[in-house]
Amino acid sequence: MKKILIADDEAYIRLLIEDALEDFSEKGVTILTAQDGEAALRIIKDEEPSLVFLDVMMPKMNGFDVCQMVKNELGLAHVHIILLTAKGQRDDIERGQAVGADDYITKPFDTDRLVDQVAAVLGKTEDTTRP
After folding, report:
1. Which residue from 28, 66, 93, 98 has the highest number of Cβ atoms inside 10 Å of its Cβ?
2. Is there a contact between 44 and 66 (Cβ–Cβ < 8 Å)?
3. Among candidates 11, 12, 34, which has minimal Cα distance to 3?
């Protein structure tokens, strides 16, 4: 079963992404959420989602540190991580790349782009592609 984790400390962002991914959920993809970095890391360890939308600025542990742990210390390089943040400066993007993020999207973002990326990451199979 494919899983997606949405990790953001802002409830409305989590809800916005959940709503955008509703069609995937209806097709059997499990949507998980976390409101801080420590919870996100725990869920990633326990559930090994296929894809993680990870906010950079979160309490308890920031997204850069979570990504670093997942990609470089836990041996979970196969988990596709997309960093979401309001910080779009070149240095921030380079830091995201340095810790192993697969992509970097700045807020505000286009939900259609997120849906397209989910379809690409989960694979072009009949039961997980964008409707």
Report:
1. 66
2. yes
3. 34
> CA 70, CA 79: separation in Å to the nearest integer?
8
CATH superfamily of 3-122: Response regulator (3.40.50.2300)
Q: What string of pLDDT tens digits covers the 131 residues of the chain?
A: 899 999 999 999 999 999 999 999 999 999 999 999 999 999 999 999 999 999 999 999 999 999 999 998 888 989 999 998 887 678 878 888 888 899 888 888 888 988 998 999 988 434 444 44
Opening angle at CA 26, ends 22 and 32, nearest 5: 60
Q: How many residues does the chain have?
A: 131
**DSSP assignments along the chain, one per residue:** --EEEEE-S-HHHHHHHHHHTHHHHHTT-EEEEESSHHHHHHHHHHH--SEEEEESS-SSS-HHHHHHIIIIISS-TTSEEEEEES---HHHHHHHHHTT-SEEEESS--HHHHHHHHHHHH-S-TTTS--
Tokens (6 digits) for 55: 């906010």
